[in-house]
Amino acid sequence: ACLLSSARTGLCAAIAIDLLSRGRNNIVIIGAGRVGYYAAFYAAQLGEVGSISIIDNDHDRAVNMAALLSQQIPAVRFTALGDYQQARDADVLVLATTSTEPICSPHDTNANLTISLGADTDYQRELDPAWATVADIFVDTLDCARFGDLNSWREAGLIDTSRLTD
Question: Rounded to two decimals, what is the model's pTM?
Answer without folding.
Answer: 0.93
